């Protein structure tokens, strides 16, 4: 099991490197393609919206396909998309490449998460999901800083070429190490929308949207923010992104283990409060601290942001799986869409601040979004009842029963892997 999960984490590493490095390269891309930084920021918005809208549809269309082949084809498409981006000579061509990349990533990541949830025993599901996201956090720690340095020295196109090479390695790993698992009946788009309309699921998805909106209001325009707040530009961004990535790696692992051991309501509350404080202090530090103290303070805050921000995905996905284990692949797919809706909204919100020359205020905007997320999470009664009920149910059922379907709806003879892999 571990080798297959690490292989999928490698695919997530390639996707994360491409996705997160764009924010650090925005000034270079904007200058080379002769567009404004807010316009270049729409490369993030278009990717996120395409992912959010395309992922559920692709999940329905590909629902009957063998998971291994689906993971292979989507990673091959991701490699080709990066090659196209590397060869792009205009803003429009790069925008089109990001659409292709979003469709590939929107197919691979939900399939990888559903695969992890399917093959892991219930008491280790949070950790299995966190392994997939370790690829993302490792991308932030290693891939993004290296991409920033390479882009500063050789041009931004070389970074996309490098990611294309990583995607090919991940493709070879999937081919060699990931085994096929049974695929149950396909869940149609109408059924997925019915799940999304459930009050508990809808509130959970709203939490994801708000939390990610806050995060990407800041992250998308982190390069111009650090340039104005502390004079950090070009390759000098890499060490700061590395610090944030180390915090993310810590947060991802701790979040996965904590999700399996502690009350999720308390855990998510702590995470959201940590994000509120991190973002608020990011904007406060340049105004209150002497110039020599700003950069050290930002280093600490970026590490804290990484810890809390990357603890969120594992905890939230574990929560969604517990709400209705039989529909785990559906809720995880919807959560992926909610994630990228949040990313797109964050890019738009941040671009408004940058366009009005208020880049130092993006931390306040991010904090406000996290406060809204916390209020939705704590005050929504339907979601609160569902979460407490799911926690009690997961504690009450013996290992293996959490995924047992109701006899009237799904055959008792269906295997656990088939249920978890239903798309």
In short:
By secondary structure, the protein is mainly alpha-helical. 82% of the residues lie in helices and 0% in strands.
Shape call? globular
Q: Kindly name the structural category.
A: mainly alpha
Proportion of residues in extended strands? under 5%
Number of E-type strands: 0
Q: Supply Rg.
A: 20 Å
Number of separate helices: 16
Write down the secondary-structure element order: HHHHHHHHHHHHHHHH
Given as residue ranges, the uncertain stretches (5+ residues, pLDDT < 50) are 391-423
**Helical content band:** over 70%
Main sheet makeup: none
N-C termini distance = 21 Å
If you average the pLDDT, what whole number results?
A: 81
Question: What features would you highlight for this structure?
Answer:
single chain, 423 residues, mainly alpha, globular
What does this structure look like?
- With 423 residues, the protein is mostly helical.
- It has 16 helices and no strands.
- Helix 2 crosses helix 4.
- It is globular, with a radius of gyration of 20 Å.
- Residues 391-423 have low confidence and may be disordered.
Topology:
Blueprint: H1 2-33, H2 37-61, H3 67-86, H4 91-119, H5 125-154, H6 157-177, H7 189-196, H8 199-219, H9 222-230, H10 237-261, H11 264-288, H12 291-323, H13 328-355, H14 362-379, H15 381-396, H16 416-421
Helix pairs in contact: 1-2, 1-4, 1-5, 1-6, 2-4, 2-13, 3-4, 3-6, 4-5, 4-13, 5-6, 5-10, 5-12, 8-12, 8-13, 8-14, 8-15, 10-12, 11-12, 11-14, 12-13
């Amino acid at each position: 099991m571990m080798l297959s999960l690490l292989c999928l984490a490698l695919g997530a590493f390639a996707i994360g490197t491409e996705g997160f490095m764009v924010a650090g390269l925005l000034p270079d891309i904007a200058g080379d393609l002769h567009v404004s930084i807010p316009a270049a920021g729409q490369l993030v918005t278009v990717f996120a919206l395409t992912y959010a809208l395309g992922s559920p549809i692709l999940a329905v269309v590909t629902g009957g396909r063998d998971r291994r082949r689906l993971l292979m084809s989507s990673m091959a498409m991701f490699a080709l998309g990066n090659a196209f981006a590397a060869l792009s000579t205009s803003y429009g061509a790069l925008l089109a490449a990001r659409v292709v990349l979003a469709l590939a990533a929107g197919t691979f990541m939900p399939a990888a998460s559903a695969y992890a949830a399917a093959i892991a025993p219930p008491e280790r599901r949070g950790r299995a999901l966190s392994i997939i996201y370790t690829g993302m956090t490792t991308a932030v720690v290693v891939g993004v800083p290296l991409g920033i340095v390479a882009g500063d020295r050789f041009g931004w196109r070389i970074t996309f070429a490098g990611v294309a090479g990583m995607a090919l390695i991940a493709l070879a790993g999937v081919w060699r190490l990931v085994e096929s698992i049974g695929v149950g009946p396909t869940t149609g788009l109408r059924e997925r929308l019915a799940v999304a309309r459930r009050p508990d699921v809808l509130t959970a998805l709203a939490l994801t949207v708000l939390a990610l909106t806050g995060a990407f209001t800041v992250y998308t325009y982190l390069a111009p923010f650090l340039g104005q707040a502390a004079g950090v530009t070009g390759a000098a961004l890499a060490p700061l992104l590395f610090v944030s990535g180390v915090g993310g790696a810590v947060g991802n692992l701790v979040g996965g283990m904590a999700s399996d051991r502690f009350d999720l309501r308390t855990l998510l509350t702590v995470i959201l409060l940590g994000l509120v404080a991190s973002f608020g202090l990011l904007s406060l530090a340049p105004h209150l601290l002497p110039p020599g103290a700003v950069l050290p303070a930002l280093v600490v805050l970026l590490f804290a942001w990484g810890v809390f921000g990357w603890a969120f995905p594992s905890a939230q996905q574990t929560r969604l799986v517990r709400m209705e284990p039989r529909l785990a692949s559906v809720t995880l797919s919807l959560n992926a869409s909610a994630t990228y809706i949040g990313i797109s909204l964050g890019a738009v919100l941040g671009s408004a601040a940058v366009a009005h020359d208020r880049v130092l205020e993006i931390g306040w905007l991010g904090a406000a979004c996290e406060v809204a997320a916390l209020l939705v999470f704590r005050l929504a009664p339907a979601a609160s009842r569902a979460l407490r009920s799911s926690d009690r149910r997961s504690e009450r059922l013996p290992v293996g029963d959490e995924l047992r379907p109701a006899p009237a709806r799904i055959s008792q003879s269906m295997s656990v892997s088939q249920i978890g892999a239903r798309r």
